[in-house]
Amino acid sequence: MGDELWRWSARRLRNAVAARQLSAVEVLESHLARIAAVNERVNAIVTLVPERALADAAALLRSRGEPGLLHGLPVAVKDLVDTAGIRTTYGSPLFADHVPTEDALIVRRLRAAGAIVIGKTNTPEFGAGSHTFNPVFGATRNPYDLTRSAGGSSGGAAAALATGMVPIADGSDLGGSLRNPASFCSVVGLRPSPGRVVSTGPGDAWDPMSTLGPMARTVDDAALLLAAIAGPDPRAPLSIEASVEDFAGLAPAGLAGSRIAWSDTVGGLPVEPEVTQVLTRAREAAVGLGAIVEEVEPDLTGADEVFETFRSLGFFTGLGVDVRRTPSLVKPEVLEEVARGERLTAQQIVRAATLRTELFRRTQAMFDDYDLIALPTAQVVPFDVTLRWPSTVAGVAMERYITWMRSCSRISATTLPCLSLPAGFTPEGLPVGLQLVGPHRGEARLLSAAMALEEALPRTFMP
Length: 463
Description:
The chain is an alpha+beta fold and 463 residues long.
C-alpha cells in the first residue's frame, strides 16, 4: 500500500507536523494530489481552494506558536456551513453563487486549532435527506461502489474521508446526517449531545435537534476533532460548560463486564437482512471482548412524531421565506417539509415537546442497567445513487423521503449522544455501521467504549 501521507491517521499527521518532522505544505500537497486522482469519480469535494490552502499551510510553517490540536491537517467544510471568501451554496440553486463574508463558529475553531481549510464537501439541497445529491453539483457516489449512494447529508464528507482526500471532516446531524453516511462509507460519525459543538447561526438557538459534530476514519481521530470544535459560546444557550480537552486523550475502555443493550430493529423497524447479518458478527465481537450483551428493544414510543414535528418546524422557521420566494428552484421534499411546518398547530407542538421529555427520560433510564445501547445505524445497505430515496425497506413501503432513516432519527429524538462505527461488510463489499448510544452528555464514555470495540471489528481503507 505504500506510506503516502494521505493514508496516515489524523493524529499521526498532526503530531508529525507539530514536531516539525513534516511540514503542513507536504501534508497538504499529498492530499491535493489524492483529490486530483479520485474526486472526479466520487464528487465529494465540490469547491476547492488550493492556492489559498497552500498559502495558509506556508503561514503555519512559519509560525512559532504552540501547535494546535489539528496542526497542519487539511479539512474540507460541509457546504451547509459558512466559510468566509469560499463559495457556500447549501446545495441550492438559490445560493449557487453565494460567498459568505464570515466564517461560522465551527470553522473559526478549526482554523484556530491549526486546520487548513481546502474547500467544501457536497450535501443535499439544504441538507434535506440522507442521500447526497443536488442540482448545483450533482450526486456524491459511494467509494465502495460508484453506482450507489454515499448517504447524507454529510455524504461528501464521508466519501472524502473514505478515499483519503481529507483526514478529518466536519458534519451536521438532524436525523442521521453524521451517522448515515458514516455507515455507508465505513467511517466514524459522532452526533454529540446538544450544546457540545455549538452554532451561533440564525434560527432557534434553543432547538436541540440539529447538532454539529466530527467525522473521521477512526474513533481516536473523531475524538481529537471533537476536542477542537467543542466548547461553549455565550450566544448559544444550550452550551455545555465543561472542559473538552480530555476528548483529545481518550483511551479504549475495556468492555469486559460491560453491559450492552442490543437492538436488532430500533423498536420494531424493518431492517434489510444483509445489515442484520453483518451486525450479528459485530455482536459476537463484543461478546468476545467480554461484554454482556442482552437483546433489548428500547421503548421509542413517540420518537417518530417528535422528530417529524420538530424537523418540519425547523424547516419552516429556517427556510420558509427563501423557498416561498422562488419555489420553482426548490426540491419538492423541502417544499413539503416547509408546508408541514406551516400547518403545525400549537397543540401538535406541545404534544411533541411532552413526548420528547418522556422519551428522553425513558431512554436515559436504560443506563441504570446498561453501559451502551447498540442498534443498526441504517436499515439498508447503500442504495442506487439514481434514486431519490428508498421506496421500500425489507419489503415494507416507505411513506416519505425520511421514513427509511428512522433507525437514526428515532435516536436523534432522544437527544442522547450516539455514533456510527464501521462494523463490517456485506458479501458484496458494502459497508454497514453499528450505532452506539451513550448516556446523557456521556461522549467520553461512548467514545472510549467505541475505541475498544473498533479494534475487534473488520476495517478497510479505500485504495
